[in-house]
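[job 0412] stage=complex_fold ligand=uridine-diphosphate-N-acetylglucosamine status=START
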Amino acid sequence: MEKIVIDGGSRLNGSVGISGMKNSALPIIFASILVEDDCVIDNVPRVSDVFNALEILRSMGAKAEFCDLHTVCINTKNIGSQLGAKDLVCKMRASSYLMGALLSRFGKVEIPMPGGCNFGARPLDLHFKGFEKMGAVCEENQGFIRIVSKKKLNCNKITLDKISVGATINMVLALAGSKGTSVIENCAMEPHVDDLICFLNNCGADIKRIGTSVICKGDNRLKGTRYRIYPDMIEALTYLTFAGICKGQVHINGVVLQHLENEIRIFKKMGFDICADNDNLKIIAKDISGTSVVTAPYPGFPTDLHPQFAALLCFSNGGGTIKDIVFPTRFAYVNELLKMGAKIKQKENTVIIERSELFGAGLDATDLRAGAALIAAALGAQGKSEINNVNYIVRGYESIVDKIAAIGGKIKLVKGE
Ligand code: UD1
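[job 0412] stage=complex_fold status=DONE, emitting structure tokens
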């Protein structure tokens, strides 16, 4: 098994380029199921979730591959509704988007229960309720999901009981090919939701987001397009935590500032010197003070930054707390930080963190963002850390070892026996 080995304590200096957003790339790759012509998608990150999504499409008979370093070419004209790569569906949460996409194109879908990062219960009840409102029948049996609609999907209005990125995306995918006009209320407003809507509109769909509502006019034949996806806001914010922990001067290049406004305000309040220049951030981090945050759907503080931010607070004067109300059991990383000497306590959905002297240790990444948090902590710790379960980290961070090494981190990927 591969592991990441980090010798902590180096300053970071230099520039890092941000890759395309994983959480946009995945729904857009699955959205190509709605389009029977060629789709070309630029700025796609080379991460394992993307490779797996492309393989799932190929297992259904699609052409789907990287045709350039960060460009993916897809044609789904000849696909059937059956997929071969069932094991890959179980590896990734985003494979749940197959439900909306296949239901829209074929009126039926049968997939194994999607997997993905395990940070507590990740139900699909909102998705099923929405599909049923459109006239489909959903069944879950022995780890398989079967959804069938005898007639073309349609509905006037769906109100999601809770804000959910996945359910919003699935409703948009299902309704993009539906009959008539539908309104989805209480939608997630994450930039990746807008990225998907923009892609579908480029293909000829008629979808508008007005505040937390999305209005979908169906009846449009979707045609092929070329589309560039947004940069990854969570990757950019993760590098901000690395810069804060390791001090020095780091330039984070190729971001959409508007996506990061709320967090930049928080980082500045902590003492980060951040200068925004078009789509680049210049960061000087010296001594930083702690703060307290509560996660919330966009534009609130992202749950996907919670573990990395916990690592940052270990290095802050005064520490702070993080309350996660989106995924209230996302705390598997806490045991790993304890191994490094962190003064961190979990109480229900909150962690309380004091400034700590961290030392290197043998660590296990328990999920994607927890893995990034361990890298952050190890970069600032005294001595050597070894991080196992690298497979979680490469699901969502492109070339993370090379990017950190290029700005002065003493980090390497070691192949196991
Ligand atoms: C997506 C992201 C994930 C991120 C999360 C929240 C992808 C591939 N994953 O996950 O990285 O952490 O958004 O920003 O884009 N819920 C229900 N019933 C449902 C669906 C969700 O109760 O049917 C709950 C969840 O348990 C959670 C909350 O709603 O408490 C938000 O989850 P959701 O936004 O759906 O997350 P995902 O789409 O799974």
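The pocket of uridine-diphosphate-N-acetylglucosamine is lined by residues 23, 26, 93-94, 121-127, 162, 164-167, 188, 303-304, 326-327 (CB under 6 Å).
[job 0412] exit 0
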